[in-house]
Design goal:
Blueprint (H helix, E strand, L loop, with lengths): L1 H30 L9 H5 L24 H5 L51 H5 L11 H4 L57 E12 L3 E12 L11 E15 L5 E14 L2 E13 L12 E14 L5 E11 L6 H4 L1 E9 L1
Antiparallel strand pairs: 1-2, 1-8, 2-3, 3-4, 4-5, 5-6, 6-7, 7-8
């Protein structure tokens, strides 16, 4: 009996050992305390391969970026890639494929592709510079943060005429049609020909035609020709002063007093300028020479005091021009009868 119990006990122990051995072969992966040391280099490279312990997928074992295969560097979140590949410390900007550098990039792309340090203005199109949040633009409106110059992305040397005539091929090339104004070339100012000052010399020829009214009564038509002399240089304190000497005749055309006369006039002039208008004020002496002394003072020969003033109404001051003027003349010995014997009139002066 005792021998039988010993044999039963021994059989039970052998059976338990056999079951334990069988269970170890069949269920070892679940029951053994695996460590990273149990991961072969092949399992660290491809931890999802058949037969690799689950612990090989753990970041604790995947502590070397060298375990990331090339295929996982551009898509670290793809199935089968070691978890360490998703750690940004194992990622570089050179691993950012074009599809990963847009705001709608796949979720499997490296996180580093969202960092502005991986971008330059070369990655930003004109559309992305203008609208940084566009779907095909770098993420997080990076093109706006880079402050790129949109003009660098557009055709160069687009003429300023595109602003006013974008649809005219003669004034705006087709590729420049949509270029914003700030990117157009500056307008070319037409070079003005240098103004040339004509040196007219100190002498100008003059010609006057006009009319005198004398209340005595008499009406005259007169004409004179002569020369204006400007002896003072430009810039001197007397440059506006000039002198004129003229000879002419006054023909009585109406009235009971007075007579035809020869005119010999000498004047000193002050020439003035007010904006685009210029003219003169003159004071001088003139000879009113008739056929001789007559009983009526208005008809005899006298030395006259002359005052006149005029302004240019046509032409260039430095070339031919026409001025309108008013003039009063009276014999020096007839000032007390100025209202009666004075000659009041005006006319046109032609300057050559």
């Amino acid at each position: 009996m005792k021998t039988k119990m010993v044999l039963q006990t021994a059989a039970l122990l052998l059976l338990s050992a056999g079951v334990a051995h069988a269970g170890g072969n069949k269920f070892g992966k679940q029951q053994k305390n695996w460590t990273c040391d149990d991961c072969t280099p092949a399992c660290l490279q491809n931890p999802y391969d058949k037969g690799c312990p689950d612990i090989c997928k753990s970041p604790a074992c995947q502590n070397s970026c060298d375990s990331c295969p090339d295929s996982c560097k551009q898509q670290p979140g793809a199935p089968g890639c070691p978890e360490i590949c998703s750690d940004v410390k194992c990622q570089t900007c050179t691993d950012c494929a074009p599809e990963c550098k847009t705001s709608n990039a796949p979720a499997t792309c490296p996180d580093i592709c969202k960092d502005i340090k991986c971008y330059s203005c070369d990655d930003c199109s004109a559309e992305c510079i203008e609208t940084p949040a566009g779907p095909n633009c770098p993420p997080a409106s990076i093109c706006g943060d880079l402050e790129c110059n949109i003009c660098d992305k557009l055709p160069k040397n687009c003429p300023a005429t595109c602003k006013e005539s974008p649809d005219d091929p003669a004034k705006c090339p087709a590729e420049c049609k949509s270029v914003p104004e700030k990117c157009l070339m500056p307008a070319v100012e037409q070079e003005k020909e240098p103004e040339t000052t004509v040196d007219l010399g100190p002498f100008r020829f003059l010609g006057d035609v006009g009319y005198y009214k004398q209340t005595d009564p008499a009406d005259y038509i007169f004409g004179r020709i002569g020369v204006e002399w400007s002896p003072f240089a430009a810039g001197s304190r007397f440059e506006q002063v000039s002198f004129t000497g003229m000879i002419g005749a006054a023909a009585q055309v109406k009235g009971t007093d007075g007579d035809d006369a020869l005119l010999l006039d000498v004047m000193t002039n002050y020439n003035w300028q007010a904006g685009d208008v210029n003219g003169w004020v003159g004071l001088g002496l003139g000879g009113w020479i008739t056929s001789g002394d007559v009983e009526d003072d208005s008809g005899d020969s006298d030395l006259d005091m002359i005052v006149n003033a005029g302004a240019r109404v046509y032409g260039d001051p430095q070339a031919f021009n026409i001025s309108a003027f008013l003039e009063i003349r009276s014999a020096i010995d007839e000032f007390d009868g100025l209202a009666e014997y004075g000659r009041f009139g005006g006319g046109l002066r032609f300057k050559f």
